[in-house]
Amino acid sequence: xxxxxxxxxxxxxxxxxxxxxGFGTTTTTAAPAFSFSAPTNTGxxxxxxxxxxxxxxxxxxxGTGTGTGLGxxxxxxxxxxxxxSQQQQTTLGGGLFSQPAQTPAxxxxxINTASALSAPxxxxxxxxxxxxxxxxxxxxxxxxxxxxxxxxxPVEFTQENPFCRFKAVGYSLMPNNKDEDGLVVLVFNRKExxxxxxxxxxxxxxxxxxxxxxxxxxxVEGVKTMPDDQTEVIIYVVERSxxxxxxxxxxxxxxxxxxxxxxxxxxxQLGVSLSMARTELSPAQVKQLLQNPPAxxxxxxxxxxKVDNPDPDKLIPVPMVGFRELLRRLKVQDQMTKQHxxxxxxxxEDISELQKNQTTTMAKIAQYKRKLMALSHRTxxxxxxxxxxxxxxxxxxxxxEQLRVQLDTIQxxxxxxxxxxxxxxxxxxxxxxxxxxxxxxxxxRYYIDADLLREIKQHLKQQQEGLSHxxxxxxxxxxxxxxxxxxxxxxIPIRGGVFS
Length: 500
Hints:
Blueprint: H1 104-118, H2 127-141, E1 145-146, E2 155-156, E3 167-173, E4 184-188, H3 192-197, H4 199-209, E5 216-226, E6 230-240, E7 246-248, H5 251-258, H6 261-269, E8 272-277, H7 283-291, H8 299-307, E9 315-321, H9 322-391, H10 398-415, H11 420-444, H12 450-499
Antiparallel strand pairs: 1-2, 3-9, 4-6, 4-8, 5-6, 6-7
């Protein structure tokens, strides 16, 4: 289910995927697309009229024609209907966006659906209640068949039925390109690398499809990868007039040409699976689109989606029916996230390269400044020598004498003790002293780790305790020695008296 803002021109079955249709002229009988021109539809109701097809519909047309209007029927795919002044054979009263009267087939369909969900009469006993619950489960799930009567065909439940619970409302970005820009989107079933490698051959093939007219030039606006190995190519065609002026072919005109049966078959041979015109919606068209909720979507949910729209000027609510549509949008979001990340990586690399270039440039600038200063000094020396040689043999002129006096005065002021030279000498002395003290202080500064400091303190404490114990032992020994000496001194006189 692609969001196609272009009008289709093939048969209704030629484009089975739902799309936000084209904005160009169509010649389909029940084309699921937008059309800004006047299609020659012969059906009794447009894409999103009151007919019951296989998709969501927003209305048959947004132009000035007398179409069936924004009906509550189920259109083929997620389409917006035509935006052109469609003239259909079926003319219902009430204006363009009027609610068409229900046909007998639609009334019978609603009655059969209600009977299958509430009061089936297939078996005629209590099993019909179980069958009703089973039909309700199938309707909620959006698949299966609801049997309710032996004489009437069962009801086919699809995800587009009003009772399907797997529905949500998302938001899509509205295109802001004008019809005069001539942008047409072609979706190829090929990888982006293949498209880029064969881009020139692709342009030539498209030019041949356009008739090979030399006044037409096919240009590629952009190439973007899409999920499921698909690639989106945005093109525009420039037409040159004989007087030398050029203009872009309008998007609706180019899209209508691509949707012709023979042209469409040629595009399919190139691998094009979908084409759409990228044009913006007018405020009146957006207003009419938002006034009526899509078929099968609760009006309360639709109104809440409009209230919760984060940017009503750029985003438009879009119904999402079933897991397949949710998965498609998830893949698109993942793909866009990868593209953003790739772009951020490129920007980061560019910034790094610019930073390197800036560093190199700053270094070169500093180098050139040094060279300029050296060359200036050399030039000044050359000028001095040249001036000396030129003035040699000439008497000193008055202006030169005046200049010499001024220079002598300046020299005396500079050499005066209390003037500039003395101050400069004093400043130089202070700077040398500060540098010396700073160097000494820097040498004395040291840092010790906290754990190491703790270990040193513990070791010094142990040493202090050992020294204290050793001193106590020495003191005890000294006292013992003194006692021995005292005893020896007392024994010596006694012995002397004995031997006398």
